[in-house]
Every structure is written in C-alpha cells, then in structure tokens.
Amino acid sequence: MLHNHGESHNTTRIGWLRAAVLGANDGTISVASLVVGVAASGAQQRSILLTGVAGLVAGAMSMAAGEYVSVQSQADTESADIEREKYELQVQPESELAELTSIYVSKGLDQPLARLVAEKLMSGDALLAHTRDELGITETLRARPIQAALASAVSFVVGAIVPIISVLVAPATRVTEVASVTALLTLAILGATAAYAGGAPVAKGALRVAFWGALAMGLTAGVGKLFGTVV
Asked: CA geometry: angle at 118 spanning 114 and 121, to 5°?
C-alpha cells in the first residue's frame, strides 16, 4: 500500500524568511537608534517622534528601491540567459541535447539513461528543461522585483512602527529607556522567531539580533549625548 510522504524542509523558507526578518530588523534597529540618539540629545518628544516617522518613510523607500534594483538586475540576467538558451535550442538542438545529457550524467545517471531522460524532456518542453536543469531557474525562484520591493518596504515599516509607538506612549522623561527596552524585546522576538522557523537554536538567534541592536542604539545614544551636550 502506497502512502503519500510529504516532507517539510527548513531550506524552503530561507528566501522569504531572510527578507522578512532583515526588513523588520532594519526597521526596528534603524528607527530605534534614531529615536534613542535624538532623545539622548535632550530633544523634545515632538522632535523625537518626527525623527522616527521620517526615518520610517526614508528607510522603507530605501529598502524598496534597493531591493527593486537588486532583484531587477537578477531578473534581467535571467531573461537574457533564457533568451540565449531559446536561440541555442533553435540553431543547435543536438549540442543542447548533449549538454543536458552531460548534466544528468553528472548527477549520477549512466550515459544511456541520461540520454533517454534528456530526449524525453526535450520532446516536451525543451526550454523548460534547460532553464531548470542547466540555468537553475524555476518559476518558484524567479526574480520578482516589484514583489521583493513591496515585501522589503512592508517588513521595514512593521519593524519601525515599534519604536515610534514607544515614543508615543512613553513619558516625556523616559523616551530613551522605553524605546530601548521595547526595541530590544522586539529584536529578541524577531531573532527567536527566525531561528525557530529556520530550525536553529532559538536563544542564540534572539541574543545575536538583540546584541547588534543594543550596540547600534548604544552608539547613537552616545553620539546624541555628545552633540546634545556640545550644543
């Protein structure tokens, strides 16, 4: 009796998980550092809030633009490779068949079987076979610039909202402390969540992210204190 055997691997989540956590971490660390730095300079709560909102907007746009340009470059490269493969299949199909056969041989098939598999696949959708097995491009993993840009911007905003809310609810004399603690807790949760979803040690993931967040906020607080004192 046959049973369906479905497997779930952590590697299938690496792509979107990395993008989401990176964006949220950036949002929390960047805006919290700005808020803490400005608060340490002795600025009024209104100015601190304005700084946080400006950081959120600028950071989200920067993340979106950077991700779009990066992924669009990848998409352009993929399209060029696919077009070249399409041309080669038209002008030299035998060479492409031999190339696909050699790929399957390198994966462990013997020559006759590799040739048979290559011929069978090329008799169906030859471009799909070469795109997947020669170029390593699949529909699931194709570069999607707009989707990547939106995802990065949204995840940044989600992370950046936390320090902004902390400024709104914190007493005027405790903005630095409340923003710092809230940001560190958020970063620890993000790190733990990412580690859990990726199958890594949760405590180590939480501590790693929180450490870098604390370092960033500590440095900006020091700068804010220094220049606030000078002014």
From this structure: 140
Token representation of residue 143: 């570069």
Q: Are 64 and 152 in contact (CB under 8 A)?
A: yes
pTM over 0.85: no
Radius of gyration of the chain (CA): 25
CA atoms of 7 and 181, how far apart (whole Å): 39
Burial class (CB in 10 A: 0-12, 13-18, 19+), 132: middle
The angle at the Cα of 198, spanning 196 to 204, to the nearest 5 degrees, equals 55
Question: Cβ contacts of residue 61 below 8 Å, gap of 6+?
Answer: 153
| Residues 173 and 194 sit within 8 Å (Cβ to Cβ) | no
DSSP conformational letter for 199 = T
Delimit the domains of the chain by residue range: 21-230
The CA-to-CA distance between both ends of the chain, in Å, stands at 80
- Burial (CB count <10 Å: 0-12, 13-18, 19+), residue 50: middle
- What's 172's DSSP letter? G
Residue 55, both tokens: 């950081």
Q: Give the tens place of pLDDT for each residue, 51-87.
A: 999 999 999 999 889 888 988 888 888 888 888 888 8
Q: Name the DSSP letter for residue 153.
A: H
